[in-house]
Amino acid sequence: xxxxxxxxxxxxxxxxxxxxxxxxxxxxxxxxxxxxxxxxxxxxxxxxxxxxxxxxxxxxxxxxxxxxxxxxxxxxxxxxxxxxxxxxxxxxxxxxxxxxxxxxxxxxxxxxxxxxxxxxxxxxxxxxxxxxxxxxxxxxxxxxxxxxxxxxxxxxxxxxxxxxxxxxxxxxxxxxxxxxxxxxxxxxxxxxxxxxxxxxxxxxxxxxxxxxxxxxxxxxxxxxxxxxxxxxxxxx
Length: 236
Prior knowledge:
Oligomer: single chain
Structural class: mainly alpha
């Protein structure tokens, strides 16, 4: 049996269609339209604000990946509208995007979070949402680890002048004390990345109360092994 042809339906009908294939097709069409827009202020971005806002909540895995691609394209094309979107989409990107079934969807959610940092005049609103998610996800190690991963990538890309260590140390503290090994590994990766930027002994001292002796020893060794050329931001 051939797949039903949805192409003749209006875009708005396909966006809310009960068939995920219709919705996927609509997301892909909008992605192309956003890419083709000749200005960040083009009317198409205002017209589809609500559609984009709901993108992370798409229930079908394949359609969700297409929806997140649409959202990523939107955020890259119009920083002004991305700032307006931020409070509506960051929690859903964290809770549904970073733990999506498809790797492509997860990477698109992470990149959209990076774009939201780039689009705003301060990273703190995004960082604080991620820190809050880490604090609330103790019983969801997969989500906690995913949030730690994207936070580490933000440090690597933007540096500690943008991602202030004082804002994320509580996340590392909670993660080092977590029962899940993957979460503790992500905490180690974050600590090593922060140390690359800050140097000195301040970070180890700030984490000392949360570390077991063996963790403190291993972290100190990794700090020493990682010292070298000063890192530079790759994104602004």
